[in-house]
Amino acid sequence: MRVTVPTFHGRVSLLLGVIAGFFLSGFAIYNIILLRDNNIVGNIIIVLVGVVLSAHCFDIFRYYKRHRIVNIQKTETHRIVTKASGNPSRLMCMWNALKIAWDQAPFRAWLIICTLGIVAGVLVNIGMTNLVLLVAIACLGLGMEVANTSIEVLLDIVHPAYSEKVKVVKDLFATVPIFVYSAYVVSWLILVVPSIWQRLV
Question: What is the predicted pLDDT for the residue at 91?
Fold first, then answer.
């Protein structure tokens, strides 16, 4: 899709505007507080100009990012805005998936349990290799939980009415994360519990 913006509204220019605004504000505040410059009115004006510049550039940059605008060119009669085409980035897809999975109670519960288990391993110093193993199993289990949620959503879209076959498929996929979490619990008992016992004894 084609639309059109001045060159100074590019992403790099907007970021430089934000940095310049912060620099102006910081410089003026430094003059007022540390150097005790007598020109307080002038420094206050510089602070206001810097804050307005940073806020304005940041607001435009955020607008471009939200609407996926890559470039805007200005002509004599109109503006041409170029938007990004194709699929969103994988990081954005991952963020959206995690937001949906966070609404599921099992995902939240296992995330808290795995985090506490890993923190306990760090505190008792189980070693880098064992710690990496725990983190890998925890991430695998959370990924399986996301996959299970996606399968449930897909089946609800394809077959919204109640069906025994759909229920069987959901139950089968729901057991996959349980196996991974069982492996995590067993690994935690083997790797962490002995270290905790040694510290207690």
Answer: 66
